[in-house]
Design brief:
With 167 residues, the protein is an all-alpha fold. Helices cover 76% and strands 0% of the residues. It is built from 7 helices and no strands. The protein is elongated and about 75 Å long.
């Protein structure tokens, strides 16, 4: 977890810009940059969840019954963590969209011959004197998609969280 703490101390967008600027512009580089900058949230959350689940009575009963470690992981730990992973993944989609748009806007993301929302905003910035409305549609599209995915993640959390089922 020390590596996670070190990574969290570095701003995500700054690290993504540095990595994307060092490497060539391509889809693979953007995917690599997103993976290298956003993995820490998954690591911290899953570690915290597994520490809580590890001390639960069902895990202790499985150990006393003689279950092997792989069986405990597959039958008891993973089903309790998978809901958290799904909800976090849906909430992170908005973060990924914003990070990709930022990289494309700054010119270090996906190549300019491919249409991206960040590239569209960058293109609209060039014509801000004559056509000030040009960056507005991609900004609205980013906002709508990010809010929609966040609401989907919140709804999934409400459905999948066993602590909220009685409400």
């Amino acid at each position: 977890m020390r590596l996670v703490n070190i990574k969290i101390s570095i701003p995500t967008v700054l690290l993504a810009i540095i990595l994307a600027a060092i490497l060539n512009r391509s889809y693979f580089v953007v995917i690599l940059v997103v993976a290298l900058t956003l993995w820490t949230r998954y690591a911290r959350l899953i570690r915290g969840e597994t520490l809580v689940i590890r001390s639960s009575d069902s895990i202790l009963r499985a150990k006393v019954a003689g279950s092997s470690t792989p069986r405990i992981l597959i039958r008891h730990m993973f089903p309790n963590v998978v809901n958290t992973i799904i909800v976090l993944a849906t909430l992170e989609i908005g973060q990924v969209i914003l990070l990709e748009a930022t990289l494309s806007f700054l010119g270090v993301g996906i190549p300019p011959d491919v249409a991206t929302w960040g590239g569209m905003i960058q293109l609209g910035r060039k014509f801000i004197d004559t056509q000030a409305w040009l960056p507005i549609p991609p900004l609205i599209a980013i906002g709508v998609v990010v809010f929609s995915v966040n609401f989907l993640g919140d709804a999934l959390r409400d459905v999948l969280d066993p602590r909220l089922r009685g409400r």
